[in-house]
Every structure is written in structure tokens, then in C-alpha cells.
Amino acid sequence: EEQLVESGGGLVQPGRSLRLSCAASGFMFHDYAMHWVRQIPGKGLEWVSSISWNGSSVAYADSVKGRFTISRDNAKNSLYLQMNSLSAEDTAVYYCTSDTARAYTYFGLDVWGPGTTVTVSS
Amino acid sequence: QSVLTQPPSVSAAPGQRITISCSGNSSNIGSNYVSWYQQVPGAAPKLLIYDNNQRPSGIPDRFSGSKSGTSATLDITGLQTADEAHYYCGTWDSSLTTGTFGGGTKVTVL
Fold first, then answer.
1. C-alpha span between A64 and A79 (Å, rounded)
2. pLDDT in tens, A63-116
3. Which of residues 61-90 of A touch B (CB under 8 A)?
4. What is the pLDDT of residues B36-89, one digit of tens each?
């Protein structure tokens, strides 16, 4: 069974950092682009960041550019999101999701994790 | 405010057909594939349609997608109470070089 499981969320103070991880299983992780999507409870989906199948290409939403870094380790079937200089506006559920293709511009977000909650508050 | 425009809500009786629209521009829908997602409260989104009109395995053919120019449509036929959920369209924006979602449409089965 194709599965993604996020971890690393929690309560963090404004200005601090957090690193999210996403463990993949049941599919050829290295063959697919990956994305992070977040959602404030009760609100819509917000795309955060994407990375190509081999990590050579990445993209970020303007709201996180310069603060967040996406990366992957295909040997470990894992995706990461390093989040720095966090603010209250980053409070959301963060989803890890795989694409249907190697390039993230296809934007077919196939497998989704259950999400991990990030709360930024003092 | 979302780059892609969806109606906030759509409602219909069981067994009916509904259509959800998603409007964009030439740099997003006009030049990239469109995908559609279903999200029920408390759960992660689920992919319904990718590459404009392709269904992942396990998605019933009651769900279909199409694209014309800078707009896309999700059709749901034989509406069921289990279809009550929020639906989102998504695509890549080649000009902004970002992913983007519509604001979401809440479907209510009367």
C-alpha cells in the first residue's frame, strides 16, 4: 500500500525553526516529484513547495521563499521541509504528497499523508 | 484570494448531476494540466482527476474532468450522500512558477 507519514510538527515559538519529515513506503519514491501543501483548519489548500524526482529542481510559494527549504533523500525514501523564522501565519496542517510524475509541474498530487500540525505561538 | 476561481458552493439532490467550474488564465490552466481533489472534514485530500481527465485507480467513473482553454470542469453524476465534501482544483502556474489551488467548492447533497 502506498503510504506517506509526516512527522516533526508541534508547538514552536515565533522566530524559531522546525524540520518536518515525510516517510514514504509502498511505492517507488525516487520516481516521483514531491510536494508540501498546508491548510489552516477550516480554510482551503495552500501549495508550499515542490521538488523534482531527483532533487535537481525546487520551487517555493512566495510566502515561504527564503525561509523554507525542501529536500529529499531517495536512499531513505524521505522528504523534508526545513522551516526557519516561523511566524503565526505558518500555523497550519502540513501535508506531504507525491506527484503522478517526475516533474512537479504536472501537479497531480496522488498520495497524501495524514498531515502534521504546526502551531507557531508564544 | 486564489489564482483559480471556483464557486463557493454547489448543491443538488441524490442521483443528480453537478458541475464544478475552475477558472484560471493562460499561464496556469491554459498551459498546464489540471487536477481535482476531494476532501471530507478531518481527512487529507484525495486525488480524483489528474492530467485534466484521468482518474486514478479506484475512482468511480461518476467523476470526470475536462478542460477547455483557461477553464476546467469537474462533473459528478449520480450524486451520493458520500459525495458531500469540499472539492479543489489545482494546477501549475508557469508564469508565477508556483503550484496553485482553487478556493474550494463545498458540495451539499440535499
1. 17
2. 999 999 999 999 999 999 999 999 999 999 999 999 999 999 999 999 999 999
3. 61-62
4. 999 999 999 999 999 999 999 999 999 999 999 999 999 999 999 999 999 999
Distance from CA of A113 to the nearest CA of B (A): 7
CA closest to B37 among chain A residues: A109
CA separation, residue B9 to residues A67, B17, B41, B86, B88 (Å): 35, 14, 15, 9, 11
β-bridge mates for residue B101, sequence order: B90
Residue B101, CB-side half-sphere exposure with 13 Å CA sphere: 25
The angle subtended at Cα B96 by Cα B72 and Cα B34, nearest 5°, is 20
Cβ A32 vs Cβ A100: under 8 Å: yes
Handedness of CA A107, B51, B107, B96 (dihedral sign): positive
Residue B94, pLDDT above cutoff 90: yes
Give yes or no for a contact between B24 and B4, defined as CB atoms under 8 angstroms apart: yes
Q: Which of A61, A62, A108 is opposite residue B35, by nearest beta carbon? A: A108
